[in-house]
């Protein structure tokens, strides 16, 4: 079987690495000549909306999937008209528009931060008394890792905030006074079977995920599973999904979801019986899903903008390296490393050492 | 860094899968258009002794290694004159000649079965009274998985045995009344650091490895480590080595060694902190070697000549699939699967189920 992937970056790279052992081969479409998955796949070099390349992708692949959610609707439609595409187009449509996404959560009775649609400065001025300060103005579409966002501290910021959107449709969200950020990764296959990973507890800095740690037997696990199950079933979803949540005094509010494998689930490569990448493939091929049982204690640390030396990293006990073959550049994720151990103290010791290394080379 | 591999079969495939996360890329030379590592590497299609392709391999790769030991001496020499080649050529020379290999074991005072060099029918007739029946006549060079071998049951077999060698230089080996076959996988880097994996206990049928099981804390571990250490140091070896041993009442006799990653170490992908494939790469790149600590109970089952369906295999708990992208053919290894669990009873249950599946489709 041949899997097509829209996008050939590190997520496609890790999907391919998980797929070869299952006997799969890969074709990716990516405009970057040096895409991270290029060496592992038949690489179609060109724009994501190039109709000839899209046709080639659809014709050669048994199933097409994607590594980012900002797939233009017409592209998703074109692919779906020629081959099987998972996750389904409706999941994309919701995930790529912050307003639709928040509305969708609310329809499913999953709590969120207070929010309002903003199409003008006037909208923003009218919404703020109810939303309260501080708040974040975000473009409805695109934007990740904190890009396309403006923190509104007071009424004095409203003009600048709206200007920063360049007239794009936006949404304003109230700040949530959360204790921690968590995410849940789940996979669903066409038959409806679902598996859930243990919660990831996530630490961000500067809007970028830095550390994701597996939380086995977390008190919020059931609540997170019930939230993500609602999503999966409402969307008749197929593949891996990631739902990011704020934990507010033990109550989980939805932040956003990603209709794809997710950075906060990278620890599953070594830290779970079956990785999120393998389960994504099993799901889209309608194969039995693999066990999500954790293997000891596990966490993932991102390397942003710079990387410690191989020799330094590989000297650390319990550490597994994952380079993306990307040249270091300010703010760019170039690698992650997993720490995994059955022993809590050893795990914590290695995690601290790894975080220190990552901070030393940080360029974000 | 780019790694060159002579041979692009399943071993090269698994080396490449272990190497991408370390940021490595691969170039392989293999005459098979459908080589298992082709999709994961720059594939030079041609004969192993094609001088232009060998030059290209040497020039593009920072280090060259191989996935089989029968590399012609002049090929190894040619590559070594142009780039770094690990493991060293002397290890190849010894490993590809059963007589040199046995002599080498004896020089190191590592016990073996009784043996004698056979260059003629007369040699064979003269040797047998001392070797004793039954015995095995083997060609000195080439041959694997029981090929190029003749079991001599009595003096009546001598003519036929010698004839089967087609005049090739041979060695006759006495049968060893062993309780079990084990192997030890170890890795050594240029600095001299060595790591040892827990023993594998191996079950063969028809001369082909069927099951290899990790034996943590085996009483024979120290003895095996001391044997393989002698080899590694005498050869000034770099890379992964596998030493196959007969356990005779707790005393380990050497059978043969392979200067490469080895089928009996495939369980290390999921069953050890660092796989043999990753440690082979770390060793030949002179990077710190990774922990060989086992992760729970682990074993590997080969699929010979046929394969159960993905759906059947992936339904089994604790099972990890490794397809080689090879068309099923009588006697051909097409895949292996690892069973791994922290729980002994669960492990044994899954291993039994997996072995049953493998036997049902066996075509060897």
Task: Please describe what this structure looks like.
The structure is a homodimer of 364-residue chains. Chain A is globular. Chain A has 3 domains: 84 residues, Rossmann fold (3-Layer(aba) Sandwich); 61 residues, Dna Ligase, domain 1 (2-Layer Sandwich), CATH 3.30.1490.20; 181 residues, D-amino Acid Aminotransferase, Chain A, domain 1. The longest helix of chain A is centred in the C-terminal third of the chain and has 17 residues. Chain A is of the alpha+beta class and 364 residues long. The first copy, chain A, starts with a strand and ends with a helix. Chain A has 12 helices and 18 strands. In chain A, a hairpin with a 5-residue loop joins strand 10 and strand 11. At the A-B interface, helix 11 and strand 17 of A face helix 11 and strand 17 of B.
- Mean model confidence by pLDDT of chain A: 95
Distance between the termini of chain A: 39 Å
Q: What structural class is derived from the secondary structure elements of chain A?
A: alpha+beta
What is the general shape of chain A? globular
CATH superfamily of the largest domain in chain A: ATP-grasp fold, B domain
CATH architectural label of the largest domain in chain A: 2-Layer Sandwich
Q: Which parts of chain A are unreliable, with pLDDT below 50 for 5 consecutive residues or more?
A: none
Rg of chain A (CA only): 20 Å
Instruction: State the total count of DSSP E strands of chain A.
Output: 18
Order of helices and strands of chain A: EHEEHEHEHHEHEEHEEEEEHEEHHEHEEH
* Fraction in beta strands of chain A: 25-35%
- What name is given to the CATH topology of the largest domain in chain A? D-amino Acid Aminotransferase, Chain A, domain 1
Give the largest interface. A-B, 33 and 33 residues
Query: Number of helical segments of chain A?
Result: 12
Number of domains of chain A: 3
Q: Main beta sheet of chain A: strand number and arrangement?
A: 9 strands, antiparallel
The helix fraction of chain A, in percent, is: 25-40%
CATH class of the largest domain in chain A: Alpha Beta
Q: Oligomeric form of this entry?
A: homodimer
